[in-house]
């Protein structure tokens, strides 16, 4: 049994014919070809796969493609505007907020939501807000710094 | 130095990662590609009595199903071990097993299918009957009389015994000691957990008989060598191995894994590109794991607290098979570090490498050195308690004085340089150690459980002089290659045999070469991770890339400079001794008159036009160097950690973490700080949250991120990082490794702090990780439970 799903990915409306069990992260990676959304686990722990669905950060490995029917999805590839990097991307670059880069798209998408909810997020707010994201490289220091700095600069 | 080395140049690799354009193996896609999935053993030890692949093979979308026999018949050799100490017994490790599984996760059969979902379904449809065999999982228990045998041909489960040190001096120290402290401890098994699960992809060109393999490896050239010489049998000249962007490794991606053979073999067999991507669960149960020691040790000292001897016996769990470098870790990277930062004449250690029904154990960040540091630093704290001395003061009393370098330890190493007293003094200053102790006394008076942990640790980084490695059991050399190719326009391509998987080499190595040549960093591109582009290399581990890889590039850049200078002198019609190469600008000019000179770009162009070169000079401007290090380098650190233990929940809260490291000269302070911070949090993970545990029947109990507790962002309140610099005299850059020091120091720093906090309750030892449950149990056992 297959299903038709229509969703808008990074501003572009697309239609797909999918199995009901297909995960959103796999749809994005294999069908849309957007491989910036990484998959780091299979138990919904790591947050590498975080995207924005109708403006909210979700782990795309916990969403079925059919559940995203009719939704607007933004991935890391669609975050920057025409005028270059998104301020959070820039802040990660400026503050050495990444090493291997694997967790980075998920961290940045989560950061969008953290700063959306509390624009002046403190170090402690950010550490708490990142509870669903794992980074094995940075020890989080510079990720936290990047997000706090982006918030302080008005995102 | 020049313009770039020593400054925090922003990373050139970042734009692709922050925009989601990382080139990871899992992103490789070909139109006709098949997806490979692997049937894995749920049993830790069993005979296979039946495999039925017919239902799987008949499924729609399944392209092929293979069993171990197919791989054997198809010419796949067993996985070799690349480090053999004397009399090592090496169990056979097939790519896919045929009749017996030895650990949970062992590969049993392989599916190739049109989609990953179909491949996963087909794996489920393969029927396997197992006849369970008895299991053993414990490092020391494996040697017990009557313990089940992991491999019948190895009749005591011992792969090797190894010893090093001055046994006579050690015995004398204990015979004459005023005080002796003893400990028995476990250095628990850890699962490296790089965030990118392992993956491999392959494309076979039947016409040219060329194979390209993409793999999540820290060292593509050694993988090509092993594939060619042992496992796949395709000549190196026809085999290209590419490790593109790799999402963290921490050692776990050094080794040659079965899937790196399975995927290209399948691609050739069915004539279509193939890709396999591990699930997290698969990675946790098949990536080589770390640590897993049981150790009994004692430290001898005089009544004034001078250490005189250390006697160590360790049982090191090697798992079911020997992973690529497994015997190296608990031998030449562990026993050799037991002298720590201290003057101690009588150090002696012996180790037993045992086989068990668990995933193979090999290098994980620090690899042997954290095990040594944790042991030594725990013993020093026990000594301080015994003698009633302050642990920092006792360390300073025993530290190797700065004037004693180079310092020969009793366990083979010649330490290059250091100033451990200054290191500890700086840490004490930064932490306000006296203030911390005063605050602790106050807190204790209030009945609070507050502790301060202090450590001074050593690392051996930048392996290794090849002849020394060879004499210790290595099958390969540990030099590095570096090529500096100046193009006719003066642009520079740098080819390094080192491999970056988070370390930022594309930036730091460009800094080095740009300064060596005096060219803008923007004109230097760093290429790594591709055997088709880089001539050879040993890869990245052991914090070797700057020390060894960087030094190879310095040598090549020196050769470039010499040739450019010669061409410059020729074109300026001056004697070579009358011209200079200005390393600030890359210009060659007549001494004293910088205006009459030639730019780097002009001279590079001249080298390629070859219209007017000095007599007998070959055209071109391209140099390769193979740099074999003279010695390891020896970074050191002193970390101070302040903790509080909650007397209700027994949770540990880190109040402050102060780190001072000496990693020699620093190329990029921002990147070095990042390495130290990341390393520290991994070390704190070992102290507080992480354990790779097996049930007695060999089931992995921490097989997903639900059970394996990797540190989260709120585990620490922040880290205060500082450094001192004692340059290494053993390489032209003066650098020492920076990748592992944080991990090595953090585990004992936190453990010492927690045990210091619990001292009033009479607790003297708890096995790691220091979870609330373990702390509660220890407090109960000490008879102090509330
Ligand atoms: S891949 Fe989605 S949370 Fe890990
Ligand atoms: S940068 Fe490697 S996992 Fe975060």
Q: What descriptive keywords fit this protein?
A:
heterodimer; A: 155 residues; alpha+beta; Ubiquitin-like (UB roll); DNA polymerase, domain 1; 2 domains; 5-stranded mixed sheet; 5 helices; 5 strands; B: 786 residues; Aldehyde Oxidoreductase, domain 3; Aldehyde Oxidoreductase, domain 4; 3 domains; 7-stranded mixed sheet; 28 strands; 28% helix; globular; binds FE2/S2 (inorganic) cluster
Detailed description of the structure:
Chain A is α+β, with helices and mostly antiparallel strands. Chain A folds into 2 domains: 76 residues, Beta-grasp domain (Ubiquitin-like (UB roll), Roll); 66 residues, DNA polymerase, domain 1, CATH 1.10.150. Chain A contains 5 helices and 5 strands, in the order E-E-H-E-E-E-H-H-H-H. A 5-stranded mixed β-sheet of chain A has the order 2-1-5-3-4, with helices on both faces. In chain A, helix 2 packs across helix 5. The radius of gyration of chain A is 15 Å and the shape is globular. Chain B has 786 residues and is of the alpha+beta class. In chain B, 28% of the residues lie in helices and 23% in strands. At the A-B interface, helix 1, helix 2, helix 3, helix 4 and helix 5 of A face helix 1 and helix 17 of B. Bound molecules: FE2/S2 (inorganic) cluster (2 copies). The site of one FE2/S2 (inorganic) cluster (FES) has 11 residues of chain A, from loops.
């Amino acid at each position: 049994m297959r299903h038709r799903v229509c969703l808008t990915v990074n501003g572009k409306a697309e239609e797909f014919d999918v199995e009901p069990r297909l995960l959103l992260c796999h749809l994005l990676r294999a069908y849309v070809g957007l491989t910036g959304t990484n998959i780091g686990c299979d138990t919904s722990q790591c947050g590498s796969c975080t995207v924005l669905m109708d403006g909210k950060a979700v782990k795309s490995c916990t969403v079925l493609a059919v559940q995203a029917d009719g939704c607007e999805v933004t991935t890391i590839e669609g975050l920057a505007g025409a005028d270059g990097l998104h301020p959070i991307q820039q802040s990660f670059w400026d503050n050495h907020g990444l090493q291997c880069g694997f967790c980075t798209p998920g961290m940045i998408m989560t950061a969008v939501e953290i700063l959306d909810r509390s624009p002046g997020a403190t170090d402690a707010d950010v550490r708490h807000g990142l509870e669903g994201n794992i980074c094995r490289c940075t020890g989080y220091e510079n990720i936290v710094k990047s997000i706090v700095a982006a918030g302080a600069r008005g995102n | 130095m020049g313009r770039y080395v020593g400054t925090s140049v922003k990373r050139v690799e970042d734009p692709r990662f922050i925009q989601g354009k990382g080139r990871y193996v899992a992103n490789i896609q070909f139109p006709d590609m098949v997806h490979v999935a692997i049937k894995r053993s749920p049993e830790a030890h069993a005979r296979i009595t039946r495999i039925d692949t017919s239902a799987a093979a008949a499924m729609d979308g399944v392209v092929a199903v293979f069993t171990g026999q197919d791989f054997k018949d198809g010419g796949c050799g067993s996985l070799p071990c690349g480090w053999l100490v004397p009399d090592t017994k090496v169990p056979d490790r097939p790519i896919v097993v045929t009749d017996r599984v030895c650990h949970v996760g062992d590969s049993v059969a392989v599916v190739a299918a049109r989609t990953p979902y179909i491949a996963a379904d087909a794996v489920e449809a393969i029927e396997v009957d197992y006849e369970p065999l008895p299991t053993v999982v414990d490092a020391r228990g494996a040697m017990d009389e009557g313990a089940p045998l992991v491999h019948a041909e190895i009749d005591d489960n011992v792969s090797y015994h190894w010893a090093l040190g001055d046994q006579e001096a050690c015995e004398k120290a204990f015979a004459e000691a005023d005080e002796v402290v003893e400990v028995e401890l476990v250095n628990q098994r850890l699962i490296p957990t790089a965030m990118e699960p392992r993956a491999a992809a392959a494309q076979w060109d039947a016409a040219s008989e060329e194979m390209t393999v993409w793999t999540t490896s820290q060292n593509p050239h050694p993988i090509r060598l092993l594939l060619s010489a042992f496992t796949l049998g395709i000549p190196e000249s026809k085999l290209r191995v590419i490790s593109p962007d790799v999402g963290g490794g921490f050692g776990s991606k050094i080794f040659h894994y079965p899937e790196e053979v399975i995927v290209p073999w399948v691609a050739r067999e069915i004539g279509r590109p193939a890709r396999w991507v591990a699930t997290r669960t698969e990675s946790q149960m098949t990536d080589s794991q770390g640590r897993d020691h049981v150790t009994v040790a004692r430290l001898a000292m005089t009544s004034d607290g001078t250490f005189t001897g250390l006697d160590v016996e360790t049982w090191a769990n090697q798992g079911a098979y020997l992973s690529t470098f497994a015997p190296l870790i608990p031998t030449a990277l562990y026993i050799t570090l037991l002298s720590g930062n201290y003057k101690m004449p009588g150090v002696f250690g012996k180790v037993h490498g045992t086989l068990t029904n668990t995933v193979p154990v090999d290098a994980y960040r620090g690899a042997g050195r954290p095990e040594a540091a944790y042991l030594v630093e725990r013993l020093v704290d026990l000594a301080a308690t015994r003698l009633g001395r302050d642990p920092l003061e006792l360390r300073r009393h025993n530290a190797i004085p700065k004037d004693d370098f180079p310092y020969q330890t009793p366990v083979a190493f010649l330490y290059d340089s250091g100033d451990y007293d200054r290191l500890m003094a700086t840490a004490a200053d930064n932490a306000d150690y006296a203030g911390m102790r005063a605050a602790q006394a106050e807190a204790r008076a209030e009945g609070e459980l507050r502790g301060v942990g202090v450590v001074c640790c050593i690392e051996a980084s930048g392996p290794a002089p090849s002849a020394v490695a060879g004499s210790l059991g290595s099958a390969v050399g540990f030099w590095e290659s570096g090529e500096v190719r100046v193009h006719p326009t003066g642009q520079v391509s740098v080819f390094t045999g080192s491999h970056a998987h988070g370390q930022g080499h594309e930036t730091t190595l460009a800094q080095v070469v740009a300064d060596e040549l005096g060219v803008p960093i923007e004109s230097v591109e760093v290429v790594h991770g591709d055997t088709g582009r880089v001539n050879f290399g040993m890869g990245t581990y052991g914090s070797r890339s700057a020390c060894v890889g960087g030094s190879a590039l310095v040598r090549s850049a020196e050769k470039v400079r010499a040739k450019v200078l010669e061409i410059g002198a020729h074109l300026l019609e001056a004697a070579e001794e009358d011209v200079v190469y200005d390393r600030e600008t890359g210009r060659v000019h007549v001494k004293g008159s910088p205006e009459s000179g030639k730019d780097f770009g002009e001279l590079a162009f001249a080298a390629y036009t070859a219209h007017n070169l000095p007599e007998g000079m070959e055209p071109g401007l391209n140099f390769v160097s193979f740099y074999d290090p003279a010695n390891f380098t020896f970074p050191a650190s002193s970390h101070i950690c302040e903790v509080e233990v909650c007397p209700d929940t027994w949770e540990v809260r880190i109040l402050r973490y102060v780190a001072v490291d000496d990693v020699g000269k620093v190329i990029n302070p921002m990147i070095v700080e990042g390495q130290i911070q990341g390393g520290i949090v991994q070390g704190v993970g070992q102290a507080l949250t992480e354990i790779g545990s097996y049930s007695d029947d060999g089931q992995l109990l921490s097989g997903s991120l639900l059970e394996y507790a990797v540190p989260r962002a709120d585990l620490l309140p922040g880290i205060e990082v500082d450094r001192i610099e004692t340059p290494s005299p053993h390489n032209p850059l003066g650098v020492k490794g920076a990748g592992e020091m944080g991990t090595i120091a953090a585990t004992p720093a936190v453990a010492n702090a927690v045990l210091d906090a619990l001292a009033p309750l009479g607790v003297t030892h708890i096995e790691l990780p220091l979870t609330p449950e373990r702390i509660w149990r220890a407090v109960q056992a000490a008879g102090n439970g509330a």
